[in-house]
Structure formats: C-alpha cells, structure tokens
From TrEMBL:
Pfam families: SIMPL. InterPro entries: 26kDa_periplasmic_antigen, SIMPL/DUF541. The keyword Signal applies. Keywords: Signal. PANTHER family: PERIPLASMIC IMMUNOGENIC PROTEIN (PTHR34387:SF1), SLR1258 PROTEIN (PTHR34387). The keyword Transmembrane helix does not apply. Gene3D superfamilies: Protein of unknown function (DUF541), domain 1, Protein of unknown function (DUF541), domain 2. This is SIMPL domain-containing protein. Residues 1-27 form the signal peptide. It comes from Methyloceanibacter stevinii. One of its GO terms (biological process) is DNA damage response.
Length: 239
C-alpha cells in the first residue's frame, strides 16, 4: 500500500509523453524552405505627356464673361487640332462660372463687381518632341492657365515585365548565395508573391508662367525619367 502514491503520479507523466511524441514526429517531417524578397527597377525616358490648361475670363455680366471665354477656348481647341492633336486627346476637365466680389474698407457687406468663367482641358501629347511647341501654341491661342504637366509611358506593361524579370533574377541569385553559404541546395519554387509600383515624375508649372511662355520661341521642358519597380517574395524548398 505504500507504493500507491508514486504509481498515481507516474500515469499522468506517461500520458504527457505519449501526446508529445506525434508532435515531434510532425515537426521532424516538415519541409525546409527559404523565403527571400527582391526588387527590380527599370528606367526609361517618357514618350508622352499630359497638359492641364485652360482659359479664365472676366466680364461685368455672366453672359459677357462666358462669351469671352467661349471665344478664347474655341481658338485654343482649334489651334490644338491644327497642330495635329486628335479629338480623343482633348478632354474638358472643369468648367466654372462664379461671381467676383469686392468689399470696400468702410463697408462690411461685399458686393458683386462682375463674373468669372473658367474652362480647363486636359491635353494628351503622344509625341513628346512636340510638347514645347504645343505649349507655345496653346498660350499664343489664348490659354492663360497652365496648371500642370505630367509625363508617362505609352506602353508601361513592357517596362513592368522587364522589372519583373529583373526582380526574379535578383531573388534567385540571392537565394543561391544563401543556400551555398548554408551548405544546402535549392529545390523547386513553392510560392511567388508580387507587388509593385509605377512611379511617374510630373513636371509642374505655375499658372502664372503663361505670360512668360508667350514670349518664348519654344518652351523648354525636361521630362526626366520614368521608373517601374517590381517586388517579389519567393519561397524554395531546400535539399
């Protein structure tokens, strides 16, 4: 009877050991893997541009301001088409009619002195070499606002594919280096995850630059470079 207590304590210990054995066996049978992240970046000069421009006109009445704006904007659009731009590359992005207020120093209430009409369009220039000439002609035709200029690539997917290939090559090279240092060999790829970013670098011009542009023979514009980056995360089995 003196051995009953140790026997009862031994039974739970055996149960815990038996439950742990299958877990250890499962961990031992798990496949060894290596996971690495890499990126690839491809740069190229832009081959197209987008211009946000327009005309702002003022008049004593809304109709007067609208008439002035319509005449000026019609001339701008006609000039663009004469320069070779297609209708699909000229899009109205904003149209606004608003009163112009003035407040005298000795009066609290503001009163309307006239009206302002703004009409803005977005222009796509598919021949980057003609960008400076297009800007010059737009301002000469009557545009008094150049809101922004942005650059782009007509076929970005080609650059994206090159960036993907470069990212994958970098991942493979790094994986081979680590595997060799660890004394193992790379097995088959078990997973590939991709993420990426297309990053344009716009050139922005202030609206007040329009009068200065009218004096230039051709507006100097620098497009810089466009970059496409692809990022991959790759997992391999190890042998």
């Amino acid at each position: 009877m003196t051995f009953a207590r140790p026997l009862r304590m031994l039974v739970p210990a055996i149960a815990v050991l038996a439950a742990a054995l299958p877990l250890s066996a499962s961990a031992a049978g798990a496949k060894r893997t290596i996971t690495l992240s890499a990126s690839g970046t491809v740069k190229a000069a832009p081959d197209m541009a987008s211009i946000s421009t327009g005309v702002t006109s003022e008049g004593q009445t809304a109709q007067d301001a609208l008439s002035k704006n319509t005449d000026a904007m019609t001339k701008v659009v006609s000039t663009l088409k004469e320069a070779g731009l297609k209708a699909k590359d000229i899009q109205t992005t904003d149209f606004n009619v608003s009163p112009v207020y003035e407040r005298k120093k000795d009066e609290q209430a503001a009163f309307i002195t006239g009206y302002r009409v703004s009409n803005n369009v977005n222009i796509t220039v598919r021949d980057i070499d003609k960008l400076g000439d297009v800007l010059d002609k737009v301002v000469q035709a009557g545009a008094n606002e150049i809101n922004s200029i942005s650059f782009g690539i007509a076929e970005p997917e080609k650059m994206k594919d090159e960036a993907r290939k470069l990212a994958m090559t970098n991942a493979i090279d790094n994986a081979k280096l680590y595997a060799e240092a660890a004394g193992v060999e790379l097995g088959p790829v078990v997973k590939i995850t991709e993420s990426g970013d297309y990053t344009p670098r716009p050139y922005r011009a202030m609206a007040t630059a329009a009068p200065m542009m009218a004096e230039a023979k051709q507006v100097p514009v620098e497009g810089g470079t466009m970059s496409v980056e692809a990022k991959v995360q790759v997992s391999w089995e190890l042998r």
